[in-house]
Amino acid sequence: MRVINFNPGPAGLPLPALERARDELLDFQGSGMSVMEHSHRGKEYDAVQSEAISLLTELLGIPDTHQVLFLTGGASQQFAQVPMNFLTPGASADYLMTGVWSEKAYEEAQYLGKVRIAGTTVLPDKRYVRVPRQDELTLDPKAAYVHMTSNNTIYGTQWHWWPEVGDVPLVADMSSDFMWKPMDVSRFAFIYAGAQKNLGPSGVLIAVARKDFIARGRKDIPKIFRYSTHAENNSLYNTPPTLAIYLCRNVLAWVKQVGGLGQLEKWNREKGELLYGALDKHAGFYHAPVEKDSRSYMNVVFKLPTPELDDRFVAEAKKAGMVGLKGHRSAGGIRVSTYNAVTVDNVRTLVSFMEEFIRKNG
Ligand code: PMP
């Protein structure tokens, strides 16, 4: 009995990817052992990792200028590792502040060098309800890089355009919207995303890095923290999280099988329109704080008239087989995470529940 899973991450995974893992668990391709019992340097695992990289390359259209890396430590480690590599002595980096995760990235970089806030949409009460416009950015043309968070998991805002940063390398934390739709990878010098939302289980982080950018990262930091080390060793400098990468491979194969990122975008937009449509229709009961052109298609946040009704909503939804709807502890309210594995039908079920909930409690 599987529930409808609206968890913000780790999140639900596509059933075919899990079934494939189940079927292969004890005996991976006739080898008499599971994939996680294989050497990370053996041919069986090598084929899995190579397939994951080639699926990512094909699905995203990653150009030759860029390389896929599998890293550990989550996006939180990247908050430190990005400035360790690129915030060279005397340099300064620009940060675009759009939520809790950009604040954390900024805080970590402060330990390592000079950082500037080149744009923020924080409100006096510390919340965020939109991303900035280009004319609100005060970018330093000499910055070592510009850091942004493409989707703000907690506040439910998402960038629907990319900032114009001139020749400055653009670095993006895409943890909560990586691969939600097709994109132009070449606009970014460095993209990173924890797998546990759109791509697989926790434990592995995927980076798509411009090769010349990582090649000029600092060489006077420990090897393990240099992106160039992982790039030169095809993410096999140390033992990678083989099981997590295997599961990402299964998810990527599913993405390809259902029609690729164009198809995912169609579904994701349909899910967003269903949910925001219901919220707008019942705006007197469900309050959706995010400004329309910053609304996230991955995390839809709203509040009911009282915190008690929020709690009742979460409890009754659970009874109806829907979990993961409680808002982040810092934001309260309801958060519906509609990552790639959540189906349009799942969202239709939730929307019917929302309408029924008003009839009973409105
Ligand atoms: N960035 C964003 C946008 C996130 O949503 C999260 C996790 N929810 C993180 C960073 C932190 O990821 P991790 O816990 O894997 O370090």
Automatic annotation (TrEMBL):
Chain positions recorded as pyridoxal 5'-phosphate binding sites: A75, S76, W101, T153, D173, Q196, N238, T239
UniProt entry keywords in alphabetical sequence: Amino-acid biosynthesis, Aminotransferase, Cytoplasm, Pyridoxal phosphate, Pyridoxine biosynthesis, Serine biosynthesis, Transferase
Record domain Aminotransferase class V: where: 4-350
Residues where N6-(pyridoxal phosphate)lysine is found: K197
SUPFAM superfamilies per record: PLP-dependent transferases (SSF53383)
Domain of life of the native organism: Bacteria
UniProt pathway annotation: Cofactor biosynthesis; pyridoxine 5'-phosphate biosynthesis; pyridoxine 5'-phosphate from D-erythrose 4-phosphate: step 3/5; Amino-acid biosynthesis; L-serine biosynthesis; L-serine from 3-phospho-D-glycerate: step 2/3
Cofactor stoichiometry and binding remark: Binds 1 pyridoxal phosphate per subunit.
Cofactors that this protein relies on: pyridoxal 5'-phosphate
Catalytic reactions of this protein: O-phospho-L-serine + 2-oxoglutarate = 3-phosphooxypyruvate + L-glutamate; 4-(phosphooxy)-L-threonine + 2-oxoglutarate = (R)-3-hydroxy-2-oxo-4-phosphooxybutanoate + L-glutamate
Compartments, record wording: Cytoplasm
GO molecular function: O-phospho-L-serine:2-oxoglutarate aminotransferase activity
InterPro entries: Aminotrans_V_dom, Pser_aminoTfrase, PyrdxlP-dep_Trfase, PyrdxlP-dep_Trfase_major, PyrdxlP-dep_Trfase_small
Residues reported in the UniProt entry to bind L-glutamate: R41
EC number(s) on file: 2.6.1.52
PANTHER family on file: PHOSPHOSERINE AMINOTRANSFERASE
Subunit relationships: Homodimer.
Family per similarity comment: Belongs to the class-V pyridoxal-phosphate-dependent aminotransferase family. SerC subfamily.
Role, per record: Catalyzes the reversible conversion of 3-phosphohydroxypyruvate to phosphoserine and of 3-hydroxy-2-oxo-4-phosphonooxybutanoate to phosphohydroxythreonine.
Protein name according to UniProt: Phosphoserine aminotransferase
Organism: Archangium minus
